[in-house]
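COURSE: Structural Biology Practicum
ASSIGNMENT: Worksheet 4, Part C
STUDENT ID: 0417
INSTRUCTIONS: Below are two proteins. For each, the amino acid sequence is given first, followed by its structure token string. Answer the questions at the end about the second protein only.

PROTEIN I
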Amino acid sequence: MTKAVLAPLETIRTRMVVGVGSKQIFGSFLEIVEQNGWQGLWAGNTINMLRIIPTQAIELGTFECVKRSMTSAQEKWKEDGCPKIQIGNLKIELPLHLLSPIAIGGAAAGIVSTLVCHPLEVLKDRLTINHEAYPSINLAFNKIYHTDGIGGLYAGLCPTLVGMLPYSTCYYFLYETIKSSYCRAHKKKSLSRPELLIIGALSGLTASTISFPLEVARKRLMVGTLQGKCPPHMIAALAEVFQEEGLKGLYRGWAASSLKVMPTSGITWMFYEAWKDILLAPQLHT
């Protein structure tokens, strides 16, 4: 539901991040409508819908699984001691009890979902940026596969993982931390839907702002071949943007991204918590 409603913002954000068309949100909006009509605002939305279902399922499922497993393991380590490694006669105790289960779960969630669903992200960006060259999902897949092979479907994977790690870690850590702190401060056991919406939006905005330059580099690498030039790696992409547009270029499209990230994150967490309440309700009563 979130992706269907906010698809125009995703289209504008992607175009601005990779440097296609106007540098202004409203200008980019007018360009898309003039060139492709209203349907152009939803370019790539079909693949985006197909992408987000497995991505969110894998991401949120991995987060909960790793968080719970890590919490359980830490409780056991408090009783039995942390794992140790032996180097010669020296035994070193790993301070794993100091790690945050939420942060580890968030990092794992981002990495696993990216590895599984990255080809869908590549297809979505190609359809969004150049709908004439890639008019359909099947043609886009075949064209990328025949031109670049399997590697083309994983273009930009390394910078995606590098960018996803701080984003996903901060995103989940901030959400859980802000939510628990807010509950303690107001002596609440659960939060209302509007409160979850606001906390989710703030978490998404903060995490996105921290990792946005890496997002710019990632998008440049993923669609670089469309513009006839593709930086060899993420550092080169960052340097290219910085030389062309300065520090401001590293945050090009940030406003459009924020307009998309905040409602996306807020609505996602609100619905996620609502469905958890619904699905876990039978277990709580038994």
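PROTEIN II
(use this one for the questions)
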Amino acid sequence: MASIALKSFVGLRQSTPENNSIVLSKPSSAALPHRKFRINASKSSPRVTGRNLRVAVIGGGPAGGAAAETLAKGGIETFLIERKMDNCKPCGGAIPLCMVGEFDLPLDIIDRRVTKMKMISPSNVAVDIGRTLKPHEYIGMVRREVLDAYLRDRASTAGATVINGLFLKMDLPQSKTAPYVLHYSDYNSKTKAAGEKKTLEVDAIIGADGANSRVAKGINAGDYEYAIAFQERIKISDDKMKYYENLAEMYVGDDVSPDFYGWVFPKCDHVAVGTGTVTHKGDIKKFQTATRLRARDKIEGGKIIRVEAHPIPEHPRPKRVLDRVALVGDAAGYVTKCSGEGIYFAAKSGRMCAEALVEGSENGKRMVDESDLRVYLEKWDKTYWPTYKVLDILQKVFYRSNPAREAFVEMCADEYVQKMTFDSYLYKRVVPGNPLDDLKLAVNTIGSLVRANALRKEMEKLSV
């Protein structure tokens, strides 16, 4: 168990060859790790006559924006439907360095470049993380309303039709080439709050509409465990903001969350303070109060300017593709355990799904079918499935008790751990380790776990 936890902590990531071109190569047809599908190329699919393939993207977050842009650039008639154009999802807003280059993000949408982090244990032992970062390396901190709007605008510039609307339901097609009929409320400038009921016929659908996905319900994709994330944006004085200029904090302990962590992440002129939990959703406000209490000296006198809460998926849905419908991002359940990272994986899955549709349709000239979407699903699972599994194990090993969390923070002090973890997080690739250092780290990991177990037993004796 310790060796598995070790591998997950240093960032088990399978390398992901990048191909940002819309003229795509044929993906590998290797079997999924957990289930085998026979992939049949759909080059014999009928041509679309008199128009290009029509695809609707439901949801305008990172997954939806990335998908819509890729579809539009690939010759597909694209519609993106999003209800909340100023959506401020309560996530920490951290993005890896590789996302900036891979998705060509302008630097002015990044509020802060975090080069230092403090991991703070249940007993308030603080470990400084970031000592191994190179001068040009950082974790980007963004506001979701800024990032999401940028990606949607770029999709619109590429040719996608962006609709301010609320997706309601869909009528399933009656044949292999018949359209899906989408029902939605259009909130244009004339109808305002009332909305105008409209329909739209499309050939395929990408569901990027979050944890409460109506697209997922429409294809009976099944349920999953979810966490509640709660976040407050707190405006603090300029003097206190200097402390968070390039620093983020993570708090672990039963007080801030029994199964996750609390955070203080810097934004442009305020800090985002939040926490999350799967197991004790009803106590989320109590955990949030504890997070503020742990950080009180650094945010004292601050004013809460916004309160946000949202469900966050804990594992992939049982079904993510059906016929000509695919789920991406939170709708598919692509949020990692332990770290809670989801922004990069949302944008990546949206782009990968759209690339599969562009390739399968020959740039919008042919009809697509389920086999085209399973190319995306197969590629995604082959690349990222191990990451999700080992991070799940890491969370179960180190987040199960306060003594285990103390051991986790103790491990974070090791510079080798920091280097391997940051390299894997920033670039989303496996970083080869030094065998001697790996062995040393394994011994230290086991020692930390043994000490944590001994401490747990002593605490149990005191509580009897």
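ANSWER KEY EXCERPT:
Q1: The chain is about 35% helix and 25% strand.
Q2: Residues 370-398 form the longest helix (29 residues).
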